[in-house]
Structure formats: structure tokens, C-alpha cells
Amino acid sequence: MPKFLSDEWAQAYKEEMNQSRAFEEANRTWVGDFLFVIEPEPDSPIKQKVYVYVDVSRGKCHECYVTRDAGDKKAKFMISAPYSVWHKYFYGRLHLVVAVATRQFKVEGNMVELLRNVKAGQEFFECGVRVSARFPDPPDA
User: Fold this and answer.
1) Is the Cβ–Cβ distance between 113 and 71 less than 8 Å?
2) Which class in CATH covers the domain with range 7-130?
């Protein structure tokens, strides 16, 4: 089982997207990339921001990797949240729509485009939830 936010986890996430028929169908017309920003908190196991870059188009994931330096990478959408929010999300304890609606996820990008593609976004994120990952702390932390 890969450690959350490791290269192995990113590869498993990519493979899950590319093996999922539901993901392929929901994202058939989608073209875009995402940058997840995982922000440190005083008690979190990460001490600096961690970024996950994901490039998705036409039902396939072309790139998915973790980096400590986003550099000048500009994605179509940027989704930011503290580590604890991502932790809950990837444990399956926080739904995507709830996270966005309650502003636990800060989203930058064209919200109209995102709203038109809710099913695509849900499948995109659900693939991440299905990836078994080893977290450095328990799910209720």
C-alpha cells in the first residue's frame, strides 16, 4: 500500500483513473489539468506545501505526480486545502460537493466549467478515494 502523497500513490491514482470505465465515460469530453495544494498545519505530518499535478483529457490521465515545488506550473484549476481536509477526503469521509460548497476546498478556475462537469469531477476524485493509501496518522486525527 503506497504512502499518501508519495510517487507510488500518484502512480496508483493515475492507474485507477485509467482503469475506471466510469471515469472514462464521465470525462470523455473533458480537457484540463489540476493542481492540488496540500497545506501544512501545526499538527500535520507535512511541514511544507505539497502539490499534486494531474493532467486529464478525453477520459484518460496523462500525468499525475507529487512535488514539493509547483514552480511556475499553472493548471486550469487549483484546489487548495489544509492537510486535514485532504486527509478526510481521501479517507472517504468528506464528499467533493460538500467540500466545495462549504469552502473547505478553495477552488481557483472557471467555476461555470466545473459546474457543467460535476459528474466528471466526482469520478475524478472518487478514483483518488479508491486508491488504498497508508496515512501517517489515523483517520480521526
Assistant:
1) no
2) alpha beta
pLDDT of residue 137: 65
Place of cell 470523455: 28
pLDDT tens digit string along 92-140?
888 888 898 899 999 999 988 888 888 888 898 889 989 988 887 654 5
Tell me the C-alpha distance between 12 and 76, whole Å: 23
Q: What SS3 class is residue 119?
A: helix
CB 120 within 8 A of CB 26: yes
CB proximity list for 52: less than 8 A, separation 6 or greater: 5, 10, 34, 35, 36, 38, 64, 65, 66, 67
